[in-house]
Specification:
The chain is of the alpha+beta class. It has five helices and five strands; from the N terminus they run αααββββαβα.
Length: 127
């Protein structure tokens, strides 16, 4: 593992769910010469060998997290916060998909969009 690759892996671990751009910014704090291309290539390699995985949490770049991170992502479309829920919440859906269409769901790669509690409880702003 090269020092640059270790910095990328460390950034993924520290940031939790992060885009390649966020990972690059974190890495550049310690190694300013590391560029976004290096980060993308490193993330691709690390995903192929099972160290990280990506998830699409909405529009834009995917986010990366550690492979052992097993949960459903809860994305607030109001504030952008990313929460987590246990994958077993998707068991009924996974069983139905398997029975009806033969589709095997990977619930740890799922992102559900909605509104977090804080945004629901926030007073509405008036113009």
């Amino acid at each position: 593992m090269t020092p640059q690759r270790q910095l990328v892996l460390d950034a993924v671990r520290e940031l939790g769910h992060a885009t390649p751009e966020q990972i690059c910014a974190q890495v550049q704090r310690a190694a300013p010469a590391v560029n976004i291309t290096t980060v993308y290539r490193t993330l691709d390699l690390m995903e192929r060998i099972g160290l990280v995985r990506h998830t699409h949490l909405g529009h834009g770049a995917p986010t990366y997290s550690e492979q052992e991170h097993q949960h459903v992502h809860l994305v607030c479309h109001s504030c952008g916060a990313v929460g987590e829920a246990p994958t077993d919440l998707m068991d009924d859906l996974a069983a139905r998909l398997r029975a009806e269409s033969g589709f095997e769901l990977d619930p740890s790669h799922v992102a559900l969009s909605g509104m977090c509690r804080a945004c629901q409880e926030a007073p509405e702003e008036t113009p």
